[in-house]
Amino acid sequence: MTAPNNISMEELVSLCKRRGFIFPASEIYGGLNGFWDYGPLGTELKNNIRDAWWHDMVRCPPMGPDGEPVSIVGLDSSIIQNPRVWEASGHVGGFNDPMVDCRETKSRYRADHLLCLGVKGDDQAQIYAFVENDDESLASARKRLEKYIKRKLDDEELDVCPFTSLSTDRIAATVGPGVKTAGTLTEPRQFNLMFKTFVGALQDEESAAYLRPETAQGIFLNFNNVVDTMRVKVPFGIAQVGKAFRNEVTPRNFIFRSREFEQMEIEWFCHEDDAARWFDFWCDTRRQWWESMGLTSDKVQMRRHDADELAHYAKEGCGTFDVEYRFPFTSPDYGELEGVAHRGNFDLTRHQEFSKKKLEYFDQQRNERYAPHVIEPSAGLSRGTLAILCEAFTPDEERASKVFMKFQPRVAPIKAAVFPLVNKDGMPEVAAKLHQDLRRRWPVQFDAKQSIGKRYARMDEAGCPWCFTVDSDSLNDQSVTIRDRDTLSQDRIGIDKVEGWLAERLT
After folding, report:
1. What is the secondary structure of 66-106 as a DSSP string?
2. With the C-alpha atoms ordered 501, 502, 503, 506, is the resulting torsion angle positive or negative?
3. Fewer beta carbons within 10 Å, N or C terminal of the chain?
4. Are 166 and 173 within 8 A, CB to CB?
5. Do 73 and 186 belong together in one domain?
6. What is the pLDDT of residues 36-75, one digit of tens each?
7. pLDDT less than 50: residues of the chain
8. 245: domain range?
9. Which helix (H) or strand (E) holds 214?
């Protein structure tokens, strides 16, 4: 599958595995669908994105509409909470997706992710289901349809419809993905997305609990604790980075839709009268932040949710905007990267109702007690990592590596590499000393194996911005060659100037 921007997801996934960004989880046992392990480079990349978000939103937060820095504090809440939390939040009763099972293959699909391919004007012929945004699934459905009607079809003759629009009779005439006969797909039925577990020695309903499907609720539960201990005043925010778990019916598109993922969320508490202003502020701020991370503006857009997409907590008026990125598997369309939602005061009032504890704020300036409204910028760290991987993937046939990862230095997993040109004449010792000096501040690699060209190629695939090479001249003039990843330009710099040169570009 190659998108119009010439990024091949197959090549990207292959590079991620080969260079240690991302591995299939439990791979030696055949893997586990919807779960992924981050390798050494992937861990560094993801942590760099996380740390940049934490620095820019919490430690050094943006300037608000009044020209003053906004007030945001951090939190790290438990993954497992009292089960009543999820009743109050609406997840136990309403966190469902329509599910379709295949009786033959035992595969399970989200009904809204299935499309059906048929012949225009023929309501009696079999139709063939395929998975949305999956070129291989679509190609298979078309091939089987053409085999069924015994002729090739022009694009104009094809009819595509959502599986959810089919009648019972048409579902019976539908051939599912990967099967040969019609009628193996069930009608859609609701499926709760939360992972159930048990707390304690006994596994019964009394000990049932859930892995959190979002990080937001832990913030709402600690609203009073933060107000009482941190002397914060409305408007203020609470930020959290952490894992969430959703038993996705059809995990797909690499780490875009997985069953275990990480979120970076802010719950911004404000007075209802100010909510619209803060909503606009966070929409603009969050889009600009993703662009500052290296996502080009022509691949990022803001999209307002339609009425039928709104979550149960979404407040009318502001609603929800998504920051979307044009991933290769969605191109020319976009996929969600982050949502900015006006949640109203739904969560605080629900937890107040279920817990019987007051979750209100006394505003001295207004002389008013109220449950604040909430603006929620909720970003996917896993999806953000994927977007930055896609953005960085740069084919270049002129290089030995044929591709390089054009990470912004701020998020690059390796900031610099130090090489001796050859392993003799004192060069390894000089290079090792420089490496030891630099690694105290940044992730810097030392590599003395194979030719210099192969070492450059390895660093290009890892996305390392700069390589410093110690050669025979270095022993005389105490300088090294800087090789730039993006331009391939090479310049000389004094060894004693290297640390300052890097610091200027990395801080």
Report:
1. TSSB--EEE----SB--THHHHHHTHHHH-EEEEEEBTTT-
2. positive
3. C
4. no
5. no
6. 999 999 999 999 999 999 999 999 999 999 999 999 999 9
7. 1-5, 310, 312-313, 317
8. 11-95+196-391
9. none
